[in-house]
Amino acid sequence: MRDWQRYLCLVVLGPVLWVQGKYVRKVTPKLPEPPGPREGVKGKGPTLRLLIAGDSAAAGVGAQSQDQALCGQLVQQLSQHFTVRWQLKALTGLDSPGLESMLQTVGAQPIDVVVLSIGVNDVTSLMQPGVWVRWQSRLAQGILARHTPKLLIHSAVPPMHGFTALPQPLRWFMGQWAREMNRRLEQSLNGETRRFFRWPVHGVVSDGLASDGFHPGPLGYTAWATGLRGMIAERKFEPSGLP
Fold first, then answer.
1. What CATH architecture is 43-201+219-234?
2. What is the pLDDT of residues 115-136, one digit of tens each?
């Protein structure tokens, strides 16, 4: 959908979307961030430093514990081959500017793999897709300068067109906005050697949703973690091996 088409829909559907947005905020259950450690060391083998950062999905909302969430499942899978030194920096409600502020609290240190999950709150605030892509570049520049990762993975904005918590036409509209953000980000990363784009899930979106119809559940996190682990393997990632 072109920019003018998207904004025309916003003008025409604006009142309906505004009412539906208020209704969703009122009735959607507010699931907590799951308990569990947010940093640690796990596994055997060469050292792999991992940072996962972002919004409520990165924080694991929709899972009962961090073990069931993205970070826990990815660490578990990677720990079969590496000694994973991992940390999680994530907060419900975070948008791209907020993520930049949070990342500044991470000490400048080498990190091998960085996974970012950000975008849903940028969609709901109607950040323009072009502006959003520039924010991803800004985030990446800061990460590359401070942490020199060998691999920086931008997880796509989740498929909001499948979020059952959103009524129509709000679901369709948010889905179109998210798709355009993803399309432009993926296009902007053509030719990059350290930054890559990854869809978090494939198949029927609702199959992997939590009870709130908005966040991933354990099955969704499993699929997401497995995809990330596979991407690291596909890139023939070689960790530094430093302690």
1. 3-Layer(aba) Sandwich (3.40)
2. 999 999 999 999 999 999 999 9
